[in-house]
TrEMBL record:
<keyword id="KW-0472">Membrane</keyword>
<protein>
    <recommendedName>
        <fullName>Sec-independent protein translocase protein TatC</fullName>
    </recommendedName>
</protein>
<comment type="function">
    <text>Part of the twin-arginine translocation (Tat) system that transports large folded proteins containing a characteristic twin-arginine motif in their signal peptide across membranes.</text>
</comment>
<feature type="transmembrane region" description="Helical">
    <location>
        <begin position="112"/>
        <end position="131"/>
    </location>
</feature>
<keyword id="KW-0811">Translocation</keyword>
<dbReference type="Pfam" id="PF00902">
    <property type="entry name" value="TatC"/>
</dbReference>
<comment type="subunit">
    <text>Forms a complex with TatA.</text>
</comment>
<feature type="transmembrane region" description="Helical">
    <location>
        <begin position="234"/>
        <end position="250"/>
    </location>
</feature>
<dbReference type="GO" id="GO:0065002">
    <property type="term" value="P:intracellular protein transmembrane transport"/>
</dbReference>
<keyword id="KW-1003">Cell membrane</keyword>
<feature type="transmembrane region" description="Helical">
    <location>
        <begin position="38"/>
        <end position="56"/>
    </location>
</feature>
<dbReference type="GO" id="GO:0043953">
    <property type="term" value="P:protein transport by the Tat complex"/>
</dbReference>
<feature type="transmembrane region" description="Helical">
    <location>
        <begin position="256"/>
        <end position="276"/>
    </location>
</feature>
<feature type="transmembrane region" description="Helical">
    <location>
        <begin position="196"/>
        <end position="222"/>
    </location>
</feature>
<feature type="transmembrane region" description="Helical">
    <location>
        <begin position="152"/>
        <end position="176"/>
    </location>
</feature>
<keyword id="KW-0812">Transmembrane</keyword>
<comment type="similarity">
    <text>Belongs to the TatC family.</text>
</comment>
Length: 294
């Protein structure tokens, strides 16, 4: 009798070990699949980086140093606005960008080329990276979840692209114009290193692109029940203060108009996030009502 119990106990232990081993193998299998998706994304970013290297003259002169030139699209549009609406004031028409960009390191210009190309490769490769992440997550979702999240890559990529464009054409030139011309004393001449200029352009542009992903983040949090429209509506006044602070930091300009130009899209994104959260909550309540009605 004792031998039978010991045999059963041994078989049970072996069975539990087998289940544990199967779970571990499953986990490592998933990890291996994720690694393959990330490797493909890195390869895609590498290809885009190589393309940026090939067209580096356009990337540097037309794109990176674009906000430093008075004939940049944003400055020309601002001057046209002043022509049509003189009440805005002549100061809004920017015809000269102060400050001088210099290189102080032996490898400075090489690092500028390398870093700017990698940055361009990452920006262009983000949609493909999101697609690879979606391909990894998709098999674990139910059919209804797949349908509801089918436009994830498109919407996330579109919002990121809109954020990049807004950051590059609005936030970046306004900030560059203000910072290059800001002085506390006539004895101090504004000269900037290439690294400082590139990091400023990259931070302002990429930062705005990431901020524009707010609706996607709210969608995911609402799906998990972490965020609700009621909470977001109740927190609107605090959100407005945070948005104004972000706008003031991103565009450290003394005039309210410039700050509001940056803050307005953020307000709209917050309101869109409330709508998305409300939509998710309604779908959840409807699904629960149908479940209990059965």
């Amino acid at each position: 009798m004792s031998d039978t119990k010991e045999r059963e106990s041994l078989l049970k232990t072996i069975g539990n070990k087998g289940k544990s081993l199967e779970a571990e193998m499953s986990f490592f299998d998933h990890l291996d699949v994720l690694r393959k998706h990330l490797i493909r994304a890195v390869i895609a970013i590498g290809i885009f980086t190589s393309i940026a290297f090939y067209y580096y003259d356009i990337l540097l002169d037309k794109i990176i140093f674009g906000p430093k030139k008075p004939d940049f699209w944003t400055y020309r549009m601002m001057c046209k606005l002043v022509e049509n609406f003189p009440s805005l004031g002549k100061d809004m028409c920017i015809t000269k960008i102060n400050g001088k960009i210099i290189n102080t390191e032996m490898a400075g210009q090489f690092n500028l080329q390398l870093n700017s190309c990698v940055m361009a490769g990452i920006v262009m490769g983000i949609p493909y990276l999101l697609w690879e992440i979606w391909r990894f997550i998709k098999p674990a979702l139910h059919e209804k979840e797949r349908k509801s999240a089918s436009g994830f890559v498109f919407f996330a990529s579109s919002l990121f692209a809109l954020g990049i464009l807004f950051g590059y054409f609005i936030v970046c030139p306004l900030s560059v114009n203000f910072l290059t011309g800001y002085t506390v004393s006539a004895e101090i001449e504004n000269t900037f290193t290439v690294d400082s200029y590139l990091s400023s352009v990259a931070t302002l542009t990429l930062g705005t692109g990431i901020i524009f992903e707010l609706p996607v983040v709210i969608y995911i949090l609402s799906k998990f029940g972490i965020m609700t429209p009621k909470f977001m509506r109740a927190s609107r006044r605090y959100a407005i203060i945070v948005i104004l602070i972000i706008a003031a930091i991103v565009t450290p300009t003394p005039d309210i108009m410039t700050m509001m130009i940056v803050a307005t899209p953020l307000f709209l994104l917050y309101e869109l996030s409330i709508f998305i959260s409300g939509y998710i909550e309604k779908k959840k309540l409807k699904a629960e009502a149908e479940f209990f009605a059965k």
